Amino acid sequence: MRFTLSIALLTCVLLTACQQEPPAVQETTDQQTYKRFTPKKILPYVVKVASPMADVSSDFTADAIKQAGNLVANWQIRHIEDFHASQLANFEGLKRYSFGGWLMGTMAIGMTEWGKAIGSDTYLDFIRSEANRFDWQVEERIFDADDYVIGQTYLELYQLDKNPSYIKPLQERLDYIYANWPVVKKPADPLCKDLLQGCRVRWSWIDALFMGAPVWLQMANATGQEHYMEFADYEFWDTFDRLWDADEQLTYRDSRYINMRDRDGYKVFWSRGNGWVFAAFARLIPQLPKDHPNYAKYVDRFQKMAERLIEIQQDGGYWTSSLLNGQPTPTPENSGSAFFSYGLAWGINAGFLDRQRYLPAVKKAWLNLSNSVYADGRVAYVQPAGAAPATAVQQESTDVYGVGAFLLATAEMYKLSQTLTTQKGQ
C-alpha cells in the first residue's frame, strides 16, 4: 500500500502541479463579457485498491463519530514516515510534505483539535513530537501565509503547555512581517487583481484567510499585544471584501474568478476555497473580543455563508467541487465538505447558528462523512491540491489536508453529539 501511495502521489502532482491558471476562453453575452471556466480532469492521490469502506454507523452519536475520527487520525500516524520520505515538491520547489507547509499544517490543526475534543494525549503527543522534529520552525517564504499556518498548532499547544519555545520562531516571523510588510494599511497592489508575480505577500487568495488570520489573532491573545489583531483584521477584510459575492453569499477563490462563468452560465465558487473561509470564521470569532469594532461583521458573514451552504448542500450530505453547479463535478468533495461540516457544527456549539434549523444539515453532513472512510482510515473524495473546481473527484483521492478537515469536523460533531445526549437525558 505504501508503494501504491507514493507512485500515485507522483503521478497526480506531475499532472496538476503547474495547472493553476484557469482557461481564458472569452464569451460574450448581451450584458457582459466573461471568461469561460472549464474544470480540469484530475487523477487521485491514491490509486484504486481493493479496500472496503469502514463499518461506521451513520447515526449521529458520540461513539460513531469517535470511531471515525480515531480511524482517520490513526491512519495519518501510521503513514507519517511515508510523507516524510516523499521527494515531492510544491509549485515553488519546496518540500511538499514539510511539517510547516500548508498540507501538513492543516493536518496538524485538525489532529490537535481532535486530541483536545476527546481528551487523548496520543494525538496531542504525536503533534508535539512532529513539532519537535521540525524544531518549532516556520517555512521559508517569509510573507506567504501558507508558510506559517502551522503557527495555529504551535499556539494551541503553547496554551496547553505554556512553553515559550513553542512560539519563539513564529513570533519572530510575525514581528518581521509586521515591521516590513510593504502595504500594511495601504491599498492592495493593482497587479494583484490578476494574481501576478509577488502577490502572495498579501492574502490575495481566500485560502490565506484560513492559513494566516487565525495565527495573528492567537498570537495577539497569547502575548496581549494588540498590533497582531490589528494586522489580521485589516488584511482579512481587505481580501474578503474584494472576493465576497453579496448576492450568492459565497467567496471567489481569487480575483481571476470574479469574471468567469462555467459552461452552463453559473458563477464559479470552489468548494475547498469557500471551506477555508468558513472554517476561518470558526477559528477567528472565538479569538475576538466581543467589543471589537468588526466583531458583528465576522458573525454576520459567517451566518450568511451558513445559510447559503445549507441551501446548496446535496441530498447525500456533501457539497460538490463546484458549489453552484454539480453537473460537471457531481461527486462529493470532502475537503470542502468537511470544512463546512466543521463550521456548521461549531456554529451550533457556539450559539451562532440555530440548532433546530442547522442540526439536520449537520446530521446529513455526518451521513456523507461516515460513508467516506476506508477501513484502513483513509478519507475518500478529497480533491487534489489546486485552485478551482475539478471534474468528478475520484473516491480514492485523498491527502493530509483532508485528514485535517475531517478531524476538525469530527471534533465539533463529537462535542455536539455529547451535548445532545446530555440534554436528552435531562
Overall description:
Helices cover 51% and strands 3% of the residues. A hairpin with a 4-residue loop joins β1 (25-28) and β2 (33-36). The chain starts with a helix and ends with a helix. The protein has 426 residues and is mostly helical. It is built from 15 helices and 5 strands. The radius of gyration is 20 Å and the shape is globular. A 3-stranded mixed beta sheet has the order 1-2-5, with no helix packed on it. The protein has a two-stranded antiparallel ribbon with strand order 3-4.
Topology (SSEs and partners):
Layout: H1 2-16, E1 25-28, E2 33-36, H2 62-78, H3 80-85, H4 102-118, H5 121-133, H6 151-161, H7 168-180, H8 207-211, H9 213-223, H10 226-243, E3 244-245, E4 250-251, E5 260-261, H11 271-284, H12 295-312, H13 334-350, H14 355-370, H15 400-424
Parallel strand pairs: 2-5
Antiparallel strand pairs: 1-2, 3-4
Helix pairs in contact: 2-15, 4-5, 4-6, 4-15, 6-9, 9-10, 11-12, 11-13, 13-14, 13-15
